[in-house]
Amino acid sequence: MSLKVADRARVPHFEVMNVLQRVADMRAAGRDVISLCAGEPSAGAPSAVSAKAAEIHRLALPLTYTSALGVRDLREAIAGHYRRWYGLEITDDDVAVTTGSSGAFMLAFLAAFNPGDRVALARPGYPAYRNILTAVGCEVVEIDCGPGERYQPNPALLDAAAEAHGKLSGLVLASPANPTGTMVSRTELAALTDWCRTNSVRLVSDEIYHGITYTDPQAPDAKGVCAWELDQTGVVISSFSKYWGMTGWRLGWALMPRDLAPAMDALAGNVALCPPTPAQLAAVEAFRPESYAEADAAVAEFAGIRQVLLDNLGRLEWGTAAPADGAFYLYADLGDQLAGFADSAEYCRALLEDEGVALVPGSDFDAVNGRRSVRLSFAAGKDAVAEAVERIVRFQERRR
Fold first, then answer.
1. Is 281 strand, coil or helix?
2. pTM (2 decimals)?
3. What DSSP letter does each residue of 287-320 carry, written as one string?
């Protein structure tokens, strides 16, 4: 008897996870490996969050189900965060707490789009957007955004995409973006939200790297511009994983447009019942002043590591690199260093096996042009990145 596998499940693996598994296997075998593949801040959660989690477990609180959209205290704290950072007056009813930002994307895509709807996104971009949209039956329209566009879409590119593929129903925008770290300005975001409004396109704004930016902290929009400052018909998605360093706590959120809120609430209760209860109870402490201060200190360290990488681009002798305005990634063409390798995936495999440095091939983020590129995450810390640079230079010199 032959049983089928659903067509919607035939999506590529997220290559980062495959690289992480190889790193774990090598470490288990005694190899010294520097992992610069995952976007995972090394500092971990703010101390107040960790202390609250310890108290929750010490008191043996009954960790039962919560509301499908999260506990009221946390939703109110998130609403307060938007007042504090962006001057937005929103309420807890606008907030859905989710199992990571991944859960928020799933709820948003299911609520906003029907099978067959066309949803645009930038290429290179985070592969899970494409894969989740494909799994829920949407037609993904990738927009080739290179260095000339600073790796971000614009209205002219969206017009061209709609003319080539047909009417669009959605646009997924990330600022700062993964893997490039590039951002859109307030003016650019206003142009995109205007385009979406004019063309009846639902914007899904990925803002999980807000706060991890490398402009003057006192400058306007230093943390990033929230799409809801300009238009509240889109979905805003964020997370505790990046700015607060809480990747394994699996906690994110969405700001829900009023027309989508009932559907997202119903879907949340059916798909996940609720987000992780202990993580929710502890995450309220992320909004204490001292927690913000710890997160900002981590961002200052990222800024220093970023500068080390930019200063060493000449030694690495790679090609064009994205400016990394935010987040903690360096996305670069390998240039002449690709000589002798079939593609960047082969380069990354050889680097990992020979020198114990794990990068991610660009093909994970761009199936068309990414075979020449790599993504390096500098979230692992200054010492790890500095040592990795030395190993990469040594690897390339030996391979010449």
1. helix
2. 0.94
3. GSHHHHHHHHHHHHHHHHHHHHHHHTHHHHT---
